[in-house]
Specification:
Layout (H helix, E strand, L loop, with lengths): L1 E2 L2 E2 L1 E3 L8 E7 L24 H13 L3 E5 L3 E6 L1 H8 L2 E10 L5 E10 L9 E2 L8 E6 L4 E2 L16 E2 L2 H6 L3 H5 L8 E6 L6 H5 L3 E2 L3 E2 L13 H12 L4 E6 L10 H10 L4 E4 L1 E2 L12 H15 L3 E5 L15 E8 L5 E3 L6 E2 L7 E2 L2 E4 L9 E4 L5 H6 L18 E4 L2 H18 L5 H10 L33 H11 L1
Parallel strand pairs: 12-25, 13-16, 13-17, 14-16, 15-16, 17-19, 19-20, 20-24
Antiparallel strand pairs: 1-2, 3-7, 4-6, 4-10, 5-6, 7-8, 9-10, 11-18, 20-21, 22-23, 25-26
Helix pairs in contact: 6-10, 7-8, 10-12, 11-12
Length: 497
């Protein structure tokens, strides 16, 4: 199979890294990896392992050189040298280059690791153990995930480009100020955000936001750094809507800022008991899909499902042209994009993905929308970032698609960017307002309140180069239920639940 005349997958010359991130599924009553595993069950209970079996597997993994990063009822996020994976599976690790959509519709080759051997499944990055006595269902190597985007002053700079600021403009546009004036600001609701990292920008200190000490799940990564700037900037969207929530940043990137520990970050968010997990990242696959999700995607889908069943609201960005399993899982709040122009007109963002799931009960992605810019660069929200980070440099520089810049300096700690990476934390902030007011609400009730009260958007299309779904009256494939309306959703929740 090819894309743009290039092979989807090719052999890589890149070496295997010293430490490899992975996921170990412990055997429950049923296997995530059995022949018909791609028909995800309506509940994750059958995949959950007993405590005794998890303890046994943990001991064996640690004896075999694996470090346990985080744990759930279904399995472990782990890190180990490549040789440890080869020893337990009786196979070899090979590097492959896979052609994927990256931010803004660009495509590029990204290195993936594969477990190759006679007794291994024909699925990228999935391995089976050579010993049947171990209570291991399967081993999955982490697939690189894609950011859904993309000592400074606490005051944002001016830019000649039309844009919105945090917190004021975002809060006003999404009708959160009315909720704030009633005293509902998401007080003490714990929101976890696995992402590129988090940097203590003076913007957060000046506004008095509550941020817990960041944690890092990639070995050797500095928990106080964010080389990309993605996690720092997008987190400001949460506080725009829920200024009194608690944020737990989780760094899932390596020293280069690559998102190599996304699954580990998600499991860590589950482990700390977050009420909301917001994820501005995902994978990318062929659209329309030629088959069913692969084993790695199904393992993560089961973990997502398990989090929801334990009363955690899970938010995933719909993607910026990507087709990804994460926002398609039933019960996920999938965040799409709506753009408001300088005249107040609303339209579907052509930067955002929008489609009907081919896999999970014809689920519509997105569920509801936040604020997202338009092509070519979605330079729309002025967000705080580490000075001189990758985003600071990229947005301040012209490129071939758009020779204009965001109007900021490359080292000032501010940049104009958005994508559905911004919409996901906006929805997380909206949800935190509701849960702060009504803590007993379950995820399905939060989603009901947000969708039933959303502002209908009837103009525009989702990412036209790939999906081209049209907005129209009522729920549609471009914008889902429409643009979130925080105060209306709050009133709905207060009166119904």
């Amino acid at each position: 199979m090819t894309r743009f005349g290039l092979p989807i997958e090719t052999v890589s010359d890149n070496p295997i890294p010293g430490m490899v991130m992975g996921y170990v599924s412990v055997r429950g009553k049923e296997s995530v990896f059995k022949e018909d595993h791609k028909k995800l069950k309506s509940t994750s209970q059958a995949y959950r392992a007993t405590k005794d079996d998890r303890d046994t597997v943990r001991r064996e993994l640690e004896k075999g050189g694996f470090s346990i990063i985080s744990e759930s009822l279904l399995g472990f996020s782990v890190a180990a040298p490549g040789g440890a994976y080869e020893s337990i599976t009786g196979a070899k690790l090979h590097a492959k280059e896979r052609f994927v959509y990256s931010a803004g519709g660009y495509s590029q080759y990204v290195t993936h690791l594969d477990i190759v051997g006679d007794k291994q499944p024909m699925a990228l990055g999935v391995g089976m153990v050579k010993s049947k006595s171990l209570k291991i269902d399967g081993i999955v190597l982490e697939k690189p995930r894609i950011y859904h985007a993309v000592f400074p002053s606490p005051i944002p700079p001016n830019s000649p480009k039309y844009h919105l600021r945090v917190p004021s403009d975002v809060a006003l546009t999404l009708n959160a100020i009315a909720a704030h004036n009633k005293g509902f600001k998401g007080k003490d609701v714990l929101v976890a955000m696995p992402d590129s990292g988090w940097y203590r920008h003076p913007f957060f200190t000046a506004n008095g936001y509550k941020i817990r000490t960041p944690v890092a799940v990639v070995e050797g990564a500095n928990r106080s750094k964010d080389p990309q700037g993605h996690g720092t900037g997008e987190s400001a969207n949460i506080f725009a809507l829920a200024p009194e929530c608690d944020l737990q940043p989780i760094r899932a990137s390596n020293d280069s800022g690559d998102l190599v520990g996304a699954v580990a970050g998600f499991l860590k968010a589950k482990e700390i008991g977050a009420r909301i997990i917001t994820c501005s990242w995902g994978g990318d696959g062929t659209y329309p899909p030629s088959g069913l999700p692969d084993e790695a995607d199904m393992a993560l889908a089961a973990e997502i499902q398990d989090a929801i069943e334990h009363n955690t609201l899970v938010v995933f960005s719909a993607g910026n042209g990507q087709f990804s399993v994460e926002p398609q899982v039933q019960g996920v709040l999938a965040a799409g994009g709506v753009n408001m122009d300088k005249n107040g007109n609303l339209r579907a963002s052509d930067y955002a993905s929008g489609y009907q799931s081919s896999w999970f009960d014809q689920h519509i992605v997105p569920t509801v929308c936040g604020l997202v810019g338009m092509q070519p660069r979605a330079q729309y929200l002025m967000l705080p970032i580490p000075p001189g980070c990758a985003i600071d440099l990229d947005e301040a520089a012209p490129n071939d698609d758009d020779p204009s810049t965001d109007g900021t300096l490359a080292d000032d700690g501010w940049a104009l960017f958005s994508g559905t990476s911004a919409a996901a934390p906006q929805l997380a902030g909206a949800a935190a307002v509701l849960l702060g007011a009504k803590p007993a609400m379950v995820p399905a009730q939060v989603i009901e309140a947000l969708t039933e009260t959303a502002v209908d958007v009837v103009v525009g299309r989702s990412f036209p180069q790939r999906f081209n779904s049209t907005a129209g009256p009522g729920t549609d494939l471009a914008t889902g239920a429409g643009l979130v309306n925080v105060d209306a959703a709050l009133q709905y929740a207060l009166s119904k639940f």
